[in-house]
Design a protein that fits this description.
Strand 13, helix 16 and strand 14 form a beta-alpha-beta unit. This protein starts with a strand and ends in a 12-residue tail after the last helix. It folds into 3 domains: 73 residues, no CATH class; 128 residues, Alpha-Beta Plaits (2-Layer Sandwich); 265 residues, Rossmann fold. It has an 8-stranded mixed beta sheet, with helices on both faces. It is rod-shaped and about 130 Å long. The longest helix has 28 residues. The protein is of the alpha/beta class. Helix 1 packs across helix 8. The chain has 19 helices and 14 strands.
Length: 545
């Protein structure tokens, strides 16, 4: 089945049903409860009318002297036909106010009106014959039998006086039986309403699938979106719930870290080694797809490979990159101060490690425009770093994001698993394509796995050997920084930078250790990702159950 060019498979339907199982279960339970309440209300309503008194009698055309038509002592065909024709008249008389009032008075039925008695009385003709069946619903069987017999006796007296002919002869004596709501009828009502609630829940889920189709199969990145997947980041709530700097989680063994390691290696190959300086921005179609986290983790992994990396927060409408590394973002050390000339580059940039720097942004009423000043700043920064990663706003919501194409040669697209709609993602990719920006690949973030671990036991990962060191500060005199940056003039003392996470310089290329120990025979990006992630990226399994 297709929805506006998007193919909807059976697996998509199973995924949405699994996703909305709480809604479906809730509506099913609601239908069951409603059926129970409806049955209870009906039972209470009929609790005083739980017995049915039923019997039958025949109409005969005898007069008071016991003779039939023409004075005959035996009934003829004309008598039978006349009795059949009298059925409607007899039924009318038995249910008339005169007869019912007489029965109420004779039986001393206190509080019972003619209308109430008539509503509980049913008289039907048996197959167009002279036989009538009379049923009375009443609260007690004994009283019901007395009323039934009183109705028949009153009818025997009134019919000859009204019609001048005929009488009633009992056939089946009246018998009382218990009736009312209960048993199988209540169970059927409960089941019916429960099934109705289940159907409504399924319909809501299917409607969501048709109106709001999201990416719930990693293979759709290539098949539907036409992008190459360079990273599949699993959902790990325990990892992302940790507080503090993202660098503090660097040593934590996690499938998330391994996935970003593989993605960074593939990204480095995609960008190529021909140019020494690379500048690209990270964007997505919508908010809450994890693009800021992806940019930060990729920067950390590239710096682990001993590539000088700079992270720039240019999501000026909703900056959040700085909070992933720093406890508090200071205006004096931000892109805002650098743009307005209130700080130099060295003052605005915060050093996180020996290979990783950060240029955060502070939220202000007036956002920083992508003008010539910003373009010149970005060009100067690109010349000083091997990788400049810009965290941009979602291209599907912020039009200013496309202006970054003037300084960035490539873009990394992040798709949140089961977050943004596929039409929104396609529209965002179309904007990037029209701008002429090269999309180096896609990272699928927050993928749920059927066999995802739920304990704290990590996969084996080579440990980084780091010597004991004092808390790290921006080194002005260390040999590493002296080799990478011009030394500050002797007359000027280096200005203190905001406190950063105490992480010593990396003595060795950790990514190379991973590659040497885990994938010695890897020849392609897909081989590296498969070995590091423990999965086959060329044949992603359907994660929708």
């Amino acid at each position: 089945m297709r929805n506006g060019g998007i193919q909807i498979r059976v697996s998509d339907m199973l995924f949405i049903l699994k996703k909305r199982w709480k809604t479906i279960a809730g509506l099913t339970l609601l239908g069951l409860v409603f059926g129970f309440l409806l049955s209870g209300m009906t039972y209470v309503q009929t609790s005083f009318q739980t017995f049915e008194v039923k019997g039958s009698f025949a109409i005969v055309t005898q007069n008071e002297q016991g003779r039939y038509l023409g004075g005959n002592t035996a009934a003829t065909n004309n008598d039978y036909h006349l009795a059949e024709d009298m059925a409607d008249a007899v039924r009318y008389i038995l249910m008339s106010d005169k007869v019912l009032s007489q029965v109420i008075n004779d039986q001393a039925l206190l509080g019972v009106t003619v209308g109430q008695l008539r509503s509980n009385l049913t008289i039907t003709q048996y197959k167009d014959t002279q036989i009538l069946e009379m049923a009375l619903t009443w609260r007690t069987p004994a009283e019901g039998l007395e009323i039934w017999n009183a109705l028949l006796a009153t009818g025997v007296k009134e019919i000859p006086s009204v019609l001048m002919l005929g009488t009633l002869t009992p056939i089946n004596q009246a018998q009382a039986s218990q009736v009312g709501v209960g048993g199988s009828s209540s169970l059927q009502l409960w089941v019916l309403l429960a099934l109705l609630g289940f159907a409504v829940g399924v319909a809501i889920a299917m409607m969501e699938l048709l109106v709001h189709p999201t990416l719930n199969n990693v293979r759709d990145v290539e098949n539907v979106l036409g992008l190459e997947t360079i990273g599949v980041i699993p959902q790990d709530n325990r990892f992302f719930r940790k507080h503090g700097s993202i660098l503090a989680m660097e040593g934590v063994n996690s499938e998330v870290v391994q996935s970003y390691s593989a993605a960074a290696y593939i990204l480095r190959n995609r960008l190529g080694t021909k140019d020494k300086h690379h500048c690209f921005f990270v964007t997505s179609a919508d908010k809450r797809e994890g693009k800021t986290s992806a940019a930060a983790n990729l920067a950390v992994q590239l710096s682990d490979m001993e590539h000088r990396t700079l992270l720039i927060d240019f999501n000026t409408r909703n900056p959040g990159l700085g909070t992933l590394f720093l406890t508090e973002v200071d205006y004096a050390h931000s892109l805002n101060a650098l743009y307005r000339g209130e700080a130099t580059m060295d003052e605005a940039i915060t050093t996180l490690t020996g290979y990783l720097d950060l240029l955060p942004t502070v939220l202000e009423h007036s956002t920083i425009p992508m003008d010539s000043t910003v373009e010149e700043l970005f060009r100067q920064l690109t010349e000083k770093y091997e990788y400049v990663i810009i965290d941009a706003g979602p291209v599907g919501q912020v039009s200013d994001t496309l202006s970054l194409t003037r300084v960035a040669r490539a873009v990394l697209f992040v798709v949140g698993y089961d977050t943004a709609t596929i039409p929104d993602i396609q529209a965002s990719l179309e904007k990037l394509d029209k701008s002429g920006t090269r999309v180096v690949g896609c990272i699928v973030n927050g993928v749920t796995r059927g066999k995802a671990r739920r304990d704290d036991t990590p996969r084996p990962r080579p440990k980084k050997v780091t010597p004991a060191a004092e808390p790290f500060t921006r080194p002005a005199e260390t040999e590493l920084v002296d080799e990478l940056r011009p030394a500050a003039p002797a007359a000027e003392a280096p200005e203190a930078k905001p406190s950063a996470v105490p992480v010593p310089p990396k003595p060795r290329n950790v990514m190379d250790d991973l590659i040497d120990s885990s994938v010695p025979k890897a020849r392609t990006d897909d081989d590296v990702m498969s070995a590091l992630l423990g999965m086959d990226t060329a044949d992603n399994t359907d994660t929708r159950g």
